[in-house]
Amino acid sequence: MILELGADAEEYGRAALRAFDAAGGDELVVRADADPAVRDELVSPVLRGLGAFDLKPRADADELEAAAALCRSAGYWALPYPVAECLSAPAGLDVDGLIVVAEHEPAGAVAGLSKRWAAVTLAGVRSTAVTQPAAGPGLVAELTLTELDTAGADDVALALALGCWTLLGMLDRALDLTKDHVRLREQFGQPLAKFQGVQFQLTDAEVERAGLDILAKYALWSIATARPEAVDDALALRAAALEAADVVFRVCHQLHGAVGFCDETALSWLSRYSQPLRRLPWGLSATRGLLVERAGRTGLTGLYAG
To answer: Please, which residues bridge with residue 147 across strands?
Structure first.
């Protein structure tokens, strides 16, 4: 297995970072939060310019890597758009995107968008999904489902994995913001970055982020090679992503102090908009429980073996 993205995918991700920055950067999520109805007009032109809607990650390994890089860049800017869901649209269904949902109280961060959604459960039950008008925190909307079939088992892994790539991008940015903050902020006549305790905390957070980076690439390889364990690998990735997010955001908020919870601070928006990814379709405990149900007897294989 090769646990690195190709050069073309990496460059595509960098191009996406620049495009999102030029389109407004941190202001995009602020404007969408104030009026969810403007999400599409704010972001869709940028994605079309990047050719995002032409990517076919289910059909081509190179485009799968490009999709992952795009999701990571979207997460870096807390882009107020369901990029991972749109890229996960299954072949054979006339929809704009796919949302992985829990068995009960299905919801997705798709409020304010006029799109045709499909939903799928971990068991592979596929449905059409209609969003309810009210937008909750994080642009989350409740979904009304109409069952279509039970043929969606192969659709789940990609949608779960790309969501984790988005969360990985958020952790990248949270750490970048925090490193800048501790270099600039001084206490007792020296930057916070000089204190050993601060260095230890940042090291702990970086270890979590770096580990997630490797697991995200492994899950991508598992999907690209159509491993029978791909869904288990995606679930394991989600569990690792949620664990890493808990550590990284805790450290970043501690080192920012109270200012990290102010709307004037990018970390505040990033942390707030990580919540739908961290809670939907399942939180950490539920994700671990599902992983145990699926792989508890045989265990995970590949990178996890030994």
So the answer is: 127
Which amino acid is located at 72 in the chain? Answer: R
What digits encode the pLDDT tens for the residues 127-153?
A: 999 998 877 888 999 999 999 999 999
Q: According to the 3-state scheme, what is the secondary structure of the chain?
A: CCCCCCHHHHHHHHHHHHHHHHHCCHHHHHHHHHCHHHHHHHHHHHHHHCCHHHCCCCCCHHHHHHHHHHHHHHHHCCCCCCHHHHHCCCCCCCCCEEEECCCCCCEECCCCCCCCEEEECCCCCEEEEEECCCCCHHHCEEEEEEEEECCCHHHHHHHHHHHHHHHHHHHHHHHHHHHHHHHHCEECCEEHHHCHHHHHHHHHHHHHHHHHHHHHHHHHHHHHCCCCCHHHHHHHHHHHHHHHHHHHHHHHHHHHHHHHHCCCCHHHHHHHHHHHHHHCCCCHHHHHHHHHHHHCCCCCCHHHCC
pTM listed for this prediction: 0.94
Q: Which two tokens stand for residue 121?
A: 């459960």
Task: Report d(CA 39, CA 108) in Å as an integer.
Answer: 15
Q: Which residues does 191 contact at the CB level (< 8 Å), separation at least 6?
A: 182, 183, 184, 185
Nearest to 261 by CA among 253, 251, 273, 252: 253
**Residue for token pair 């890493």:** 244
